[in-house]
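Why Phage major capsid protein, P2 family? Reviewers of the renewal asked for a concrete example.
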Amino acid sequence: MNLTPLAKTQLIAYCANMAKSYGVDDVSQQFSVTEPMERQLKAALLESVRFLALITTMDVDQIKGEVVKVGNYGIATGRKKNGRFFSDQGVDGHSYELVETDSCAVVTWATLAVWANSGTANQFMQLMSNNATVRFALDLLRIGFNGTSIAIDSDPVANPMGEDVNKGWHQIVKEKAPDQIVTDEIYFNPDAEGVLKEGEYKTLDAIVTELKNSLIHTSLRNDPRLVVLVGSDLTATAQTKMMNLADKPTERVAAQKMDQNIGGLPAYTPPFFPGKRITVTLLSNLHIYTQRGTRHRKSENVEDRKQHEDKYWRQEGYAIEEFEGYASIDEANMNIGAAPAMEPS
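Here is what the prediction returned.
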């Protein structure tokens, strides 16, 4: 299919508007994003996906460095004889390293034709802008939760969750603080009756409570900022069990809301979070860094591929601020169902 005249006209207007916003003559040639527009681009990304605004996203000057502390989780109040009290604010952090990161949001000519005919020129521009911004923003989380390696040539077919684009938060903790990740076999069995087998739990509340009390540092266990991130496979199983048992409207409402609070902690199921993973942490503990001055954009109609491509290049990476503020059960070790029968001794 060829690019329709109306779609072509609106696409030209979109590129002209983008060029004006970034203060460049031609967006089809790669250009550097200036500092004021860096802030606007970052704000647009955070606004497009709500969960991104809850974690720590920062611009840094160096490709390698110490993790930036956004706060100290210990006590800051006391007294000192003949002086003023102060506590160590923990300025020494863990290291981070940023890598080349390249995003490309594609819209085919066929889709452009539909968008051009479905509304006004302003609506077309909004669709184009949202397509790029939301995809870039979602990929930050997709890679953050699933990234395990940094390939020279990433393979989106073999690694659809960005596993080979960068090392995400879970992988960083696995490598640098492995004791914070539960690798024993865990069995979530809401149908369990009687005495539970080793590693078997009847409720998510019990799993989260034990995870928090065994692996989260004592100074953080009662921190009101602590939350639980839980996979959709686990919440769906728990909700189904509760709905099947509920015989009153109030009980059904409680079942529908059970994933809002688990084990006494606010609960979230973020985009692209692995379905059988559970993580207890502070949201501010999850960091994404972009090197200041490295953002580059390009927006071009590629006739050979019959599509328009919005491109975004930068140096980017992930970090954890406090390892003892992150505790997780790896999805590979989480099982839904009964634990196997114990072998006779």
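The chain has a mean pLDDT of 90. This is the kind of structural detail the renewal will allow us to pursue systematically.
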